[in-house]
Amino acid sequence: MVLRKIYRNYLQNNLFMRLLLLFSMITVLTIISFSYFMYYSMSQAAINRELDIQKKALTNVNNYLGGKYDSAQSILFGLYRDSSLASGVSFMLQHPFQEYVQHGLEQYNLGGNSMWSDGLQYFKNQVEDNKDIRNLLLYSEDQQTLYALGQNGQMKFVPTNRARSYIPDVMALESKSVELPNIWVREAIGQWDPNLYAIRTPITDKLTLKTIGQQVVYFSTDGIWKILQNDKDELKGMILVLAPDGGVLFDSSNQYVGKLYPHMDQINAMYENGGSSQGDYVTKLTQSKGNFSTVSIIPRKELEATSKRIGSTILLISAICIFFAILIPFLVVMSVAKRTNQIIRFTRKVKQGDLSVRIPDVREDEIGQISRSFNEMIEELNLYIDRVYKANIKQKQTELTALQARVNPHFLYNTLEVIRMRAISQGAHDVGEMIYSLSALFRSFVQQKKIYTLKHELEACRLYLELFQIRYKDKFTYAIDWDRRLGSVRVMKMSLQPIIENYIVHGLRSESSDNELHIRVKQVEAFLHVQIEDNGNGISPQRLNELALFLQDEELEGESFGLRSINQRLKLLYGSEYGLKLHSEPGQGTTIDIWLPMDGGTEVDDV
Hints:
By secondary structure, the protein is α+β, with helices and mostly antiparallel strands. It is 53% helix and 18% strand. The radius of gyration is 64 Å and the shape is rod-shaped. The chain starts with a helix and ends in a 10-residue tail after the last strand. Residues 403-408, 556-560 and 602-607 have low confidence and may be disordered.
């Protein structure tokens, strides 16, 4: 009910509000759809960017640890390349320490090189050259002895009898991977730094190719932190380095360092380069060297926080766009509606009869053109009403002036008919013809024809001329030349007869016997041209100029009708290009040209 009421009160009869509502709905839906698309695209791009950053960091860490694995192997490769050095280290790992010392002294006394001293110095140099090495351990399987070199260059000798230590059992396990330092080895050498990882490599006798011991290198994770330093501000979540058994060699969050990762089964089940674990984004890289894995874990909440920031920004921009997308069309539509309502209001005033109103809109757009057309229409309407009104008044004045005896026309016709019959019975045939012509002329004046044509007007002129031809007998002749096909053209009533009357009153020379009047009618393009020519007294130039001005003046009420009346009525009804033109010479005669429309002047029937 509420929606129906709102529609009925504000939308049903309001086109602009419906257009505004439709445009607003389309705009809002478009902006929302576009915003959602932008949010989805930018969120995915942000997630992919974060994952790319994590993957780049993982790749750097992976390559770094692979390089450390190679550096640990290269220590033994350098040992094997020097046969003397390799023999000394092999002797040290296969004999008791005292025998090795004694053997070294004997070699020194004989003038030879001390293999023990050279082997020890070789490993010391390796520790000094590689700042990431914290300890380098050599383990003898035959003697169950552990030699530990530290960064300070000192060596620590640790006996590891199987009955008293777990170190022999630990060293007996084969391992070619990067792993956590063993707790028993840590305890034996007193190394409890948690940020270490171990790379163990077997040592073989170069001659017998028998495994005689183990090399264990403890690397610090400080180098990994340096690798991640460039991307530290952009990294999210945590980066782990995992041993095959799940030991955490490195943890950027320091949460699992030195411990077993609790979700190792899920990590092992994942494919490399991507996956999901417990709703988190996980990226995994496996290094064949050392058999370790680097894993990036980004909690979904952290990526969603990035998406929320993007969503908030897009939402704010969308809200601003929607606001202006509705506000600007609303202002434009309201302006157009205001101007349209103004046109409607002025139209209603015209409907009520107020033809003086004008719409004050000067803009050049469509509504401004409608307003100007409205104003021009009102002006034309005023001119038309004024023209037809004045033409009707002048026509009535003409008819009243010409016919003072219109009160009882039937009485007049009957009386004239009795007089005519009496004249004929007494032999006065010319008097009878005059009475007949006068009676027919009066009848044509009095009768109201719905359509008045050129034929009717020329017949009235002929009847009028017949009266005076009878009166003046052989002193006056007339001729009417016209195309009978023009007889149906509609003309203004009494547009020619007053001109002929004017000639009879002012131009006819009663003392002359050669008075002539010619009426010629023809079509000239879109005009009906009537020319009335006589050989009467003519008009002097001064009088002709006065008549030219006289034709342009308004006719006063009660003034006699004539040339001016005809000229003004023609111009009022048909336009300024129609009317009368006079040409005259004193003693030669006068020519009057009347220009009428060929379309019959359909505006007024009885005028």
